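Incident review: delayed structure delivery

Summary: a single-chain prediction request sat in the queue longer than the usual turnaround. Root cause was a stuck worker, restarted by the on-call engineer. No data loss occurred. The affected request and its eventual output are reproduced below so the record is complete for anyone auditing the incident later.

Affected input:
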Amino acid sequence: MNNIKRLLAFLAIIASLFLSSAIAKQTDCPEHFADGQAPDLINQKLSTKTQEICYSGYAVEHSGVTRTPLYSAEHLTRDRRLQGKGLKRHSQFHSDEHLPASDRAELHHYARSGYDRGHVAPSADMFDAQSQYECFSLANMVPQVPENNRGPWEGIESTVRKMTEREGELFVVTGPVFIGENLERIGEAVMVPSQLFKAVYDPQRKQAGAYLIDNTADAQPQTISISELEKLTGINVFPAMNDEVKAKGMKLPEPRSFKERKRSGDRQW
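Output delivered after worker restart:
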């Protein structure tokens, strides 16, 4: 009887491992994801008209429904941060030819909309001319309230870069949240997110957490666990992570905006 129980337990483990590998999302750019596993779209409604695009500095899962990313993912390292410092910014926004015309955002959709073309994977994270050009694809943009994009959101981005320099490497998944019955579309095409998130995983500490902020002018960021983010977005941003790490939110630094850093003289933070 004991031998039968051991055999059944062994078969259960094998079945579990097989199932996990079978449902893992296939990706052509595992280098951008923690443990090489791309985020899973738990909410199947999100998977309609999606396409992965692999770039040198990030990977994006694009939605032809919203004409925005569902997420952009990056593997940030201290070496790349040092390589990218002093890189001159070239703001060459462009539509993405990897996407069908019916699914992608165009420059005219954003024109006179009142919204910024808000980077999901930030341009300041990039490390050379090619990665920066790729970062300005409209497949990596969401309509963002200007005061939000240039204020608290910029503070979040800068804080994560500083964390990368301190810790050595981070895996980051960033994206929009679409909640509400009357979501706006600019240019009658591109959906405006209600919120934005930035999830951070420190592979050395085995800790993770996320910033979440409303897409409004007066919004202030909050921090939540990966489990909470998963419930909110319908996206399992770190599928290789165990439930205990997901549930225990990592203590993330409080972001400071560019104006606050400039006022204090700390321009590198």
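Verification: The radius of gyration is 19 Å.
Action items: add queue-age alerting; document worker restart procedure.
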